[in-house]
Design brief:
The structure holds two protein chains of two kinds. Chain A is α/β, with parallel strands linked by helices. Chain A is 45% helix and 8% strand. In chain A, β4 and β5 form a beta hairpin. The radius of gyration of chain A is 26 Å and the shape is globular. Chain B has one domain. Chain B has two helices and four strands; from the N terminus they run ββαββα. Chain B has a four-stranded antiparallel sheet with strand order 2-1-3-4, with no helix packed on it. The termini of chain B are far apart. Classes of the chains: A alpha/beta, B alpha+beta.
């Protein structure tokens, strides 16, 4: 009669069991583990389990996976795959900027916030470049980023916009719309829509600042720098530091963004001015980050990220956002901390006083 | 469709948030262009289109508003870039190109 396997295993010393766990067949490993567990239980030697290292099923590390498609200058959501993860530069600036920018954005979210891609589940980062002809825009379509070439089809002297992949913060901006879609789901109109836009500008700017290794003081806080051709009197599309000063051009007019609630724009256009009034919360972030000092993604970015993921909801307005972000700063760094004071200062300087009543804040 | 009409084309949204708001007056067009536009408007059955197509907003996408006014008639249609009414595609393509900002 053959003795039960575990009886035999019970008398085998732990180092032998470890060897079996490393080099045995699947059946041997299973029996060794069972025996080890029983042995530890019976003999009160649970420590044996903790001291032995043995191969566990491999846990996959999050990896970025970028796919770049060429739309063929058509306004089609389909395209031809032109570069995928691990492939070298294509030589086409739009393709390579979309690839690199998506990588820098993935890196910020993973390295700083521990987020695994847009959905936090390893979603592939899909970009579609060369979308349309004379298409002056970039957008997030719910699944991927889409970039136009600006006015690159016009004679140089008539051009206003360059290709929309040219600024890494635009790429970070579009991908952050994806993050918002999976997190706070801020409704895209009115103040919640302006917050949606502001979060995209904030994290887009943080991607750029991290690439350049700029502190909050060193950063330019511009969104879309380089998108205008030299025919335009403007340095960027928006300025988070000084909303309303990014451009002032005879054809385009003056940058209309407000930076204070006193100048809040009431309009039905652009889903209630989401690209206009975003200047207010964006400036609050800039003031907070500048007040804290150092790299903006380290503290201010963490506070705002926590707000976006789990604290803000679809209909959040500016006041609610300010109260929640203030509370998060207190949770993270302590009530009355320098960081919480910086958050308070940021919102107050754009005309929003923090309501300290807890019931109103959450 | 009368010979005299105006078309107001408004574009809002987009990543830049820089809008377009231009009005085309048929009296200022060449006869051939007016004829072509009249055909496009007729073929689209513009005056019987619903005022608002599905307008679920998408981040950074363009929104459009077209107002056509002719003797005794005025109609406004709004839609997003993601929901251009199929019958309006030719007219929208024409208006985008016609109103495109250039230096």
């Amino acid at each position: 009669m053959t003795a039960p396997h575990q009886s035999v295993m019970c008398v085998i010393p732990p180092y032998m069991i470890e060897n079996i766990l490393k080099h045995g067949t699947q059946i041997q490993k299973k029996r060794a583990l069972k025996a080890l567990t029983m042995s530890a239980q019976f003999r009160g030697r649970r420590q044996a389990l903790m001291n032995i290292s043995f191969p566990l099923p491999r846990i996959l590390q999050p990896l970025k996976h970028r796919l770049i498609y060429h739309a063929g200058f058509k306004e089609s959501i389909r395209g031809r795959l032109v570069r995928k993860e691990g492939e070298g530069p294509s030589g086409d600036p739009a393709i390579d900027e979309a690839y690199d920018g998506a990588g820098h954005t993935w890196d910020l979210y993973y390295d700083v916030f521990g987020r695994n891609s847009v959905d936090n589940k390893g979603m592939h980062l899909v970009s579609l470049v060369h979308y349309g002809k004379g298409y002056d825009n970039a957008f997030w379509d719910g699944e991927k980023m889409v970039y136009g070439d600006g006015d690159e089809d016009l004679p140089e002297e008539e051009r206003i916009f360059r290709r929309f992949t040219i600024a890494v913060d635009i790429i970070g901006h579009e991908l952050t719309h994806g993050v918002t879609q999976y997190e706070a789901r801020l409704e895209y109109h009115g103040q919640s829509g302006a917050l949606n836009e502001s979060f995209s500008d904030i994290f887009g700017s943080l991607v750029k600042q991290r690439v350049l290794n700029h502190t909050a003081t060193e950063a330019d806080w511009l969104i879309g720098q380089g998108i205008f051709t030299s025919n335009v009197n403007g340095k960027a599309i928006r300025s988070m530091k000084s909303p309303g000063t990014a451009y002032d051009d005879p054809l385009l007019g003056k940058d209309p963004q407000p930076g204070h609630m006193a100048d809040y724009i009431k309009t039905t256009s652009d889903n209630g001015g989401v690209h206009l009034n975003s200047g207010i919360p964006s400036r609050a972030f800039y003031i907070c980050a500048d007040e804290i000092g150092g790299y903006a993604w380290e503290k201010a970015g963490q506070i705002w990220y926590r707000a976006l993921c789990g604290r803000l909801s679809a209909g959040t307005d500016f006041q609610e956002a300010a109260d929640i972000i203030f509370r998060i700063a207190g949770e993270e760094y302590g009530n009355g901390s320098k960081e919480q004071d910086a958050v308070k200062k940021g919102w107050e300087e754009v005309g929003i006083s923090i309501r300290s009543d807890k019931k109103k804040s959450i | 469709m009368e010979d005299q009409f105006t078309i107001r084309f408004e574009r809002t949204g987009g990543f830049t948030g820089i809008g377009i708001d231009k009005t085309i007056d048929s009296l200022q067009l060449k006869k051939q262009e007016t004829k072509m536009l009249k055909e496009m408007i007729s073929n689209s059955h513009f005056f019987s289109l619903p005022a608002r197509e599905s307008m679920k907003p998408h981040p950074d996408r363009f929104s459009y508003k077209i107002t056509i006014e002719t003797r005794g008639r005025k109609h406004v249609v709004e839609f997003s870039q993601a929901s251009v009414p199929p019958r309006l595609k030719d007219l929208v393509r024409y208006l985008i190109e016609k109103t495109r900002m250039k230096k």
